[in-house]
Amino acid sequence: MSEAKTFVEYPFDRSRSFYFPRTRDRLIRYRHLIRFGLMSGAMVADLLIIVAAGMLGATLRQGAIDSDNLVQSIGVLAPTYVLAAIALGTYRMATLRSLPRSLSTTIAALVIAVAFGMCAAFALQVGARFSRLETGYTILFAFGMITIARSFGVLLIRRLLRFAVDPTVVVFTDGTISQRRTGRTSVRSVVNVRASGMEVSLADPAFLNRVAGIVRDADRVVIAVEDVEQRRKWAEAMRVSGFDAEILADLGDIEPLAISRWQGRPTLVISRGPLNLGERMVKRAFDLGVTLLLLPIFGPIIALFAVLVKLESPGPAFFVQDRVGRNNRTYRCFKLRTMRNDMLDMSGNVSAGRSDARITRLGGLMRKTSIDELPQLFNVVMGDMSLVGPRPHALGSRAEGALFWELVPDYWSRHAMKPGVTGLAQVRGLRGATHCRSDIEDRVAADLEYINGWSIWQDLKILVQTIAVTVHRNAY
Q1: Separation of CA 129 from chain center
Q2: Which string of b and e fits 23-61 if b means at least 16 CB within 10 Å?
Q3: How many helices (H) and strands (E) does the chain have?
Q4: pTM of the entire predicted model
Q5: In the chain, is it the N or the C terminus that has fewer CB atoms within a 10 Å radius of its CB?
């Protein structure tokens, strides 16, 4: 049988690029160089934009670019921004291909750079030497120009360089994986080794050369072979050939998190407990440091609204409710009261809805702006909560009339970490009432994604992103 019938090349999508297939193949072949150029170019472009923003700010404020403020602001802002951007993964290809991820990480890095610059100026007592207006112009220009540049860059990559930057996958299968099942997003070719008569032979240079020619331009090689012995042979062939390869294993309903070893044999990590001691110490120090900085700002706001709550309707200013915390232990969660005292739902059986008669006029305002959640900063200080983590739920919370854990089997796993004042689900817009099963399923999925991929940089990024979703259409 001819190899043309068993080696499937996915057709070229002319609607997404003007390149001919031959040009596309060259792009794929030199993709590593192109990717390095794109990542380096993005970094250089960001630096040039910050310099240009400083020049525009100096020109607008001083009428010339030879401003002392320009050198000082750029000297601090530019390097701090680049370091923060690298830490947040701004220059990774996965980020450069995604407009939301690209914008969120660049903006977060710029916010960090600006905050660091302000703190440095305050600590060194040189703030009086800076022109606040010129600095403001510089920051505004930098935000605007970086947003435009990133939007254009993502469009350029998607339209002209997609085949060079998208990950390419080659699948070797014995027929268990078909073209229809693989889709057409990242799989470049599917080779049916059984139909094409490709027998693994490490003593045959022609076989190894044939494999090398097939996977030359691939980022990933997947072995999808059912026979255990054949799978072992293909794994050995990939190992000696030096390719990045993976084996598709049927584990049933088991979804492992990682691979470990015990007594010289591989094991699948199927669950992950709380953070280790060092990680918990870092997260706790971060929580306390940021919270103690925020309390002088938000403390007076909490006190003001507590007085307004008392004046608007009879009852306590604060609403204290038992919620599920770390390791599924309950704790007392603080909120500003937003409902009439005689209509409070202490168990959380009924989610608040739009135009809910239980919510006071002031309560509606606090819910829309998330002001009612500010007292949870005290929970953070007490150690019951973290600034970032899965949002805590009341024991009686329901969707479609059923308790959360009755709908989502993995529900209790979200409590492996402390609950948070904000979280990954919230910055993705997953908030508000839980009317449908999918409402809580999506939130639990985001919570588990956060737990499994935790880092202190992720916490920082989520805190910055929270600013944009403080006022949200689902907050009621």
Answers
A1: 38
A2: ebeebbeebeebbeebbeebbebbeebbbebbbbbbeeb
A3: 17, 13
A4: 0.49
A5: N
Assess contact for 362 and 390: CB atoms under 8 A.
no
Element housing 69 (H / E): helix 68-87
* Beta bridge partner(s), residue 236: none
Dist CA 284 CA 307 (whole Å): 31
Which of 153, 215, 157, 224 lies closest to 189, judged by CA? 215
- 370-428 tens-digit pLDDT: 899 999 999 999 999 999 999 998 888 888 888 888 888 888 888 889 999 999 999 98
What backbone torsions phi and psi does residue 333 show, to the nearest 5 degrees?
Answer: -100, 135
Do residues 42 and 30 touch, judged by C-beta distance below 8 A?
Answer: no
Take residue 17 and report the two structure tokens written for it.
């690029």
Backbone angles phi, psi at 358, to 5 degrees: -75, -20
In whole angstroms, give the CA distance from residue 38 to residue 35.
Answer: 5
Backbone φ and ψ of 187, nearest 5°: -80, 120
List of residues 6+ apart from 206 with CB closer than 8 A: none
CA-closest candidate to residue 247, choices 274, 273, 266, 272: 266
C-alpha triplet 115, 121, 126: angle, nearest 5°: 160
Q: Which residue in this structure is represented by tokens 């693989």?
A: 182
Identify whether the C-beta of residue 426 lies closer than 8 Å to the C-beta of residue 466: yes
Q: What percent of the chain has pLDDT over 90?
A: 16
